[in-house]
Amino acid sequence: MQNFDTKQFTEQFESMFFGPARAYASLSVDFAEKLTNAQLEAGRAYSETGMAQLRALLDVKDAEGLRSYMEGQQKVAKDLTERMKGDAEKVVSLQQDFVQQSQKLTEENVKQATETATKAAK
User: Fold this and answer.
1) Is residue 12 over pLDDT 80?
2) Rounded Cα gap, residues 90 and 109, in angstroms
3) Can you spell out the DSSP letters for 59-82?
4) Residue 109 has pLDDT above 90, yes or no
């Protein structure tokens, strides 16, 4: 009768299943946190811009003030467009980083699982 080594079984199970699952979960949580922070930062910036524009509109008292306000709107639109472009690039960068790290993690886990399976077969 063969003696069953629970310690070896536990180590193999940890290295093949639980370890990789925890690593991927950690990577996913980090990505979600970074993405949420980027979205909150963007939302805050857009809200502040909107409020500043409303306050500027409230300061319009005559035709000259209205003209000045309308001219300022062009700059605001340009700034917002640039901000949106930057925010989109930031999200794409976060996603690309997540994909690269996920691929690296998968490659490492496959290598480790192969080594573990090879050792167990001996």
Assistant:
1) no
2) 28
3) T--SHHHHHHHHHHHHHHHHHHHH
4) no
Euclidean distance between CA atoms 122 and 111, whole angstroms: 17
User: What tokens were used for 59?
Assistant: 């300061």
DSSP assignment, residue 2?
A: P
For 59-72, the pLDDT digits (tens) are 999 999 999 999 99
User: Is 122 in contact with 47 (CB distance < 8 Å)?
Assistant: no
Give the span between the Cα atoms of 1 and 4, in whole angstroms: 9
- Residue 109: closest CA among 12, 26, 28, 17: 17
Q: Would you say 94 and 35 are in contact if contact means Cβ atoms under 8 Å apart? A: yes
- In the 8-state DSSP scheme, what is residue 4? P
